[in-house]
């Protein structure tokens, strides 16, 4: 289950549907138990900048940050998504906001499942999984 905390405010797209779609896809592709949990926190640019600076020592606004948490059984961790970056990047990459949000959530979930993109090989594997998942749940780059 993804526990959603909207710290951002009013969001103009159906993010709850996307959260459900992505989670069902992630569970299916990775054979996760029904009692597996993640927290998703939707934030603004200021909040994610502060988190990025405090925990990653990076002084800029980013789109998504994931923090693994293996202390509680069946709890994978927290994902923070910046809604302002989601809207901005959808325009930049010329695809829908829904697709961008699905991509960022998928990316965050894969990080919590142990995927990374620090090397070229890791990036290739992680991005292949992302593409497979987004196609499986019907959020390809051309979705409106």
Describe the 3D structure:
The protein has 144 residues and is an alpha/beta fold. A 4-stranded mixed β-sheet has the order 1-2-4-3. β1, α1 and β2 form a beta-alpha-beta unit. It is globular and about 35 Å long. The chain starts with a strand and ends in an 8-residue tail after the last helix.
Reported for the largest beta sheet, the result is: 4 strands, mixed
Structural class: alpha/beta
**Topology, number of strands:** 4
- Envelope shape: globular
State the distance separating the first and last CA atoms.
Answer: 26 Å
Please state roughly what percent of the residues sit in beta strands, choosing from under 5%, 5-15%, 15-25%, 25-35%, 35-45% or over 45%: 15-25%
Low-confidence stretches: none
The strands making up the biggest β-sheet line up spatially as 1-2-4-3
Rg on CA atoms, Å: 14 Å
What is the ordering of alpha helices and beta strands?
A: EHEHEEHHH
Mean pLDDT figure: 93
Helix content: 40-55%
Instruction: Report the total helices.
Output: 5
Looking at how many chains there are and whether they match, the oligomeric state comes to: single chain
């Amino acid at each position: 289950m993804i526990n959603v905390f909207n710290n951002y405010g009013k969001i103009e797209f159906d993010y709850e549907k996307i959260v459900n779609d992505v989670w069902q896809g992630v569970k299916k592709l990775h054979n996760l138990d029904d009692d597996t949990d993640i927290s998703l926190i939707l934030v603004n640019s200021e909040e994610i900048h502060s988190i990025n600076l405090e925990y990653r020592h990076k002084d800029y606004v980013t789109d998504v940050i994931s923090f693994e948490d293996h202390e509680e059984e069946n709890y994978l961790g927290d994902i923070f998504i910046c809604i302002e970056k989601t809207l901005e990047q959808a325009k930049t990459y010329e695809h829908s906001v829904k697709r961008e949000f699905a991509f960022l959530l998928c990316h965050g979930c894969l990080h919590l499942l142990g995927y990374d993109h620090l090397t070229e090989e890791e990036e290739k594997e992680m991005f292949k999984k992302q593409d497979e998942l987004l196609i499986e749940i019907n959020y390809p780059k051309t979705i409106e």
